[in-house]
Amino acid sequence: MTQLIARSAASAPGRAAASAPAPAPAPAPGPASASAAALGGPWPASARPGPGADLLVGGVGLAEAAERFGTPLYVLDEGEVRSRARAYRQALPHAEVLYAAKAFLCSAMADWVVEEGLGLDVCSSGELWLAVSAGFPAQRILLHGNAKSPAELRLARRLRVGRIVIDGPAEIARLAALVAADTPQKVLVRVVPGIAAGHHAAVRTGVGGQKFGFPIEGGDAADAIARVLDQPGLELAGLHCHLGSQITEVEPYLRALDVLVRLLAQVRERHGVELPELDLGGGHGIKYLPSDAEFDLAEFAVRLTDRLAVRCAEAGLEVPHLIVEPGRAIAGPAGVAVYRVLSVKHGADGHCFAAVDGGMSDNPRPALYGSQYSVRLVGRRSDAGAMRADVVGRHCEAGDVLVRDAALPADLRPGDLLAVPAAGAYQLSMASGYNLVGRPAVAAVRDGRARLLIRRETVEDFRLREVGR
Q: How far apart, in whole angstroms, are the C-alpha atoms of residue 459 and residue 24?
């Protein structure tokens, strides 16, 4: 996204940059003298050193927020969310951009997204209900998922959801039974183009051998398209695909586009129908470490739109309406998790474990995918040298490690605060109640002010779910 930063910053003076800053050296552990430019990498664009060795995000000190709201705490930079959403609209002015709610959703996020001109991609009745209850227009919502229940499909129809993605054979008849020919439901068929992309095998959804979509190879996709076209109550608007997650290269999307345009041409040849929409999903990667590659939105926008025009011209097709579904790329860099150190344990072999008051219940990604993060001391000045330590959680699992081999001050002690950037996506949305440790609070920051969006989950919340004994 680096090419897009200057354009967005110039068009919106005083706002956060459209993307995280350009790569810069990682800050030295502990000292408060690091310059704002040295933050770089995965931190929000607004992040800069503050008084008392604090770190400011959205003009609010993280240590100050931790004292006010407690820890663990997730701090969400509203300006960063809006800036990144706006960057997609500016880069792809003729496309439809849907925020992928699975990355993180709350009522405030739904407000920010719709106010910046984005639609919404949901994959459950819970996400759908929350969005509509927050006032999000149902016609700007797309529902997908590989196992939609009959109740979810009924709810989507009752709320008049704009599009539903058909992901399996049973959904065709199930959805067709809910609609009448005079009130058709617009649908997309999710196809599998046979292209592997994504940071981990568990999230590579563009290839065969996994649960999503209809493979193009072998004819399953063609059969599903024919069945949908035979249903008078279903309006087949186009094709949908999603390659995977945390993709940092543009090339896989171009290869997928080639495959999908060929399929569009085959649909026209076999059925005499030109499908007007093409949804390429999301999966755009972000920085978790300063050295990480990041998805280049500007390159994606230029190369994809050019390639689509060329391939459609070659096939004699009208250029379809393009849809993209970024989630992590909008929410991820906007979030910072703040933890309090509970204990520091030095082993006989010199290895150090810094245990914090959160862990795999609020961030399961390191345990699931081996994900790596940066971490930084905030709220206290340290002139001590650096040590290597594993930042571990409080849960009863040896694999409950948040950050491995982190560089932290050698005088780290209980009560210190640690901040972990790039925490806005796929952490709280995947959080659990393991060990009955409640999920953290979420606070939004903007222009020097903080407000609570989601309160901390308590033991009483767990108890109230019980109905008998």
A: 42
